[in-house]
Amino acid sequence: MIGFGQSDDADSAERQRRELLAEVTVDDVLEFGLIPELVGRLPVLSSLLPLGQDELVRIMTEPKNSLVRQYQKFFSMEKAELEFTPEALSEIARIAMKKDTGARGLRSVIESAMFEILFELPEQGDGGSYRLTDAIVRGEEQMFPGGPRDGSAAA
Length: 155
Prior knowledge:
Blueprint: H1 10-22, H2 26-32, H3 36-39, H4 53-61, H5 67-77, E1 81-84, H6 86-99, H7 104-120, E2 129-132, H8 134-138
Parallel strand pairs: 1-2
Helix pairs in contact: 4-6, 6-7
């Protein structure tokens, strides 16, 4: 943008781009180069905005069959409880954003964090209560100390 009082930071440019994208019309799409036969078959034009960390956390927790509830159900099958700390949810969302995979990438991030945990869970006995922390998601800590990763478990 040109002129006095205009902000040159990236946030205002990104905000302006989002506002313009939301105003796209059929004529704009035709001018861009899509053929009229294709555009005529598109009943609705909409723009998609990238999801932020807060939206990704909501996607993991709010739906009826959310990822968090699915893993809590896996733990309940072993008569155990699982709690996700807010920091762990934020870390999962941050990793998915870093990979630029959006909401689809959340499952792969959680699966990579939970793979060994789910494998070791049946050996922990019934009735435990466990917390998934951001350090566990990053791989800095283990949920079950002394597991096969340490080499202290009998083969």
